[in-house]
Design goal:
This protein is 37% helix and 23% strand. By secondary structure, it is of the alpha/beta class. It has a seven-stranded mixed beta sheet. A four-stranded parallel beta sheet has the order 5-6-7-9. A four-stranded parallel beta sheet has the order 11-12-13-14. The radius of gyration is 21 Å and the shape is globular.
Length: 426
């Protein structure tokens, strides 16, 4: 029988809607050729012959998508957290990323990153590499070996950055990007390329125009940064005085959702016109709460984005964020929404646990298609969570156990099983 066809038995939870969980204690998740056939209290007659994997009293939840992270920054996570964005980039980020010109260093660093990501709650991720095509290909090689599904971008930047990490010209950046795309075409099953202008200030108009043309030619998705920091926003206006707002720069060059599936990270200080454009263009927002704390960027209005039905997911933003834990990311998103409600706008109620969980699963995972849920027709990305070492005297429901796991995962929680599109990772 197909290895991607089986039944998982346990306490199964997934997002029914943005605000409601489906909870089936000691239920059965039917996976047929990697696709969910639904969750049932008893095995339906049509599936009686499928092998059952009994997960005991464990929690079974959908895998999580990290919608924004910087793989080459993994070695210095947890360092420089007393700086704001632009100073942090010059002091820590650009010097570290320059080291990836050395392929031996890149291979070692990316192997560590990929192995740690494999053991985490993340089943899908969208990652930045560096300007170096060979190192970016090594990142793709290492991620492919994990069995996770990912998008990886070779970074483009030809101005306003350290000499050690700046590409010589727009033409060079574009030529190298084309060679990278041709080198990786058809090479991987689970790892795909994504166009990656680092952010508007580090890309000339000529480079952005060229990337827009590459997007149309290769029909690629796009990832970048948007309205993260007030100084950055002012800088964009100086560099592109014709723009109506930051996101208008990307949209002008065809990289803001209309022509290309697009992820914009942060979106902390978006004006009304930018929010409207994101909504109309179906731009994905990667909310990175821990990074926004660490780099003093601000508090993103996530409740507003949900109300506007803008697609939103979560990102760890390594190394602006200090760790890969998507559980920590959920907890931080909920906590930041409480501060937004208390300090900025008391009409925007804080996120619930259900909403935070939705962002980490369906919200971000939908960038990959029908993923992040156990509803029929979704690819089965699943995590098996053992929480018995998070000790308590209380007799908790599965819903309360999940909430507790989100906040206490590092205290004694353990991921004992992981599946991506029905394939067992461990």
């Amino acid at each position: 029988m197909n290895k991607n066809t089986f039944i998982l038995k346990g306490n199964i939870l997934y997002s029914k809607t943005k605000t409601e969980l489906s909870v089936t204690e000691q239920g059965f998740l039917i996976c047929f050729e990697g696709i969910s056939q639904g969750v049932y209290p008893q095995i339906p007659d049509a599936f009686q012959n499928l092998p059952v994997i009994d997960c005991g009293d464990c929690l079974i939840i959908p895998g999580m998508t990290d919608l924004h992270l910087h793989a080459p920054q993994y070695p210095f996570r947890g360092i420089g957290m007393d700086m704001e964005l632009l100073e942090w980039l010059e002091t820590h980020t650009f010097p570290e990323e320059s080291r990836y010109a050395d392929t031996d260093y890149a291979q070692n660093a990316y192997h560590i990153f990929a192995e740690d990501l494999k053991q985490s709650a993340t089943t899908r991720a969208v990652a930045f590499g560096t300007i170096h095509p060979r190192a970016t290909e090594l990142l793709m090689d290492n991620l492919e070996a994990t069995g996770l599904k990912t998008f990886v971008g070779k970074v483009n930047m030809d101005q306003n950055c350290s000499d050690i990490i700046r590409e010589p010209s727009a033409k060079t950046s574009l030529d190298v990007t084309v060679k990278w795309l041709e080198s990786v075409a058809g090479k991987y099953q689970n790892t795909k390329p994504i166009l990656t202008p680092r952010f508007a200030p580090t890309c000339s108009a000529a480079l952005l125009e060229g990337l827009g043309k590459l997007q149309k030619e290769y029909r690629l998705p796009v990832q970048s940064h948007l309205s993260e920091n007030l100084s950055e926003i002012a800088w964009v206006k100086e560099l592109f005085p014709w723009s109506l707002f930051y996101g208008d720069v990307y949209d002008h060059f065809g990289m803001f959702g209309r022509e290309a599936p697009t992820i914009m990270a942060h979106c902390v200080h978006c004006p009304e016109e930018e929010i409207k454009r994101m909504k109309n263009n179906r731009v994905y927002i990667a909310h990175c709460p821990q990074s926004n704390i660490n780099l003093a960027s601000g508090i993103a209005p996530v409740r507003r984005y949900l109300e506007e039905n803008i697609p939103v997911g979560l990102g760890t933003d390594i190394a602006g964020g200090a760790n890969l834990s998507m559980f920590r990311c959920i907890a931080d998103a909920i906590g930041m929404s409480k501060l937004y409600w208390r300090l900025i706008d008391q009409t925007k109620k804080p996120l619930t646990m259900e909403e935070g969980f939705y962002l980490a699963t369906v919200g971000g995972s939908s960038f990959f298609g029908r993923v992040g849920s156990f509803a029929p027709g979704y690819e089965v990305d699943a995590l098996i969570l053992d929480d018995k070492n998070i000790r308590t005297t209380q007799n908790l429901s599965a819903r309360k156990r999940l909430e507790r796991y989100i906040y206490l995962a590092e205290e004694g929680g353990k991921i004992v099983g992981k599946y991506v599109a029905g394939k067992r990772i461990f």
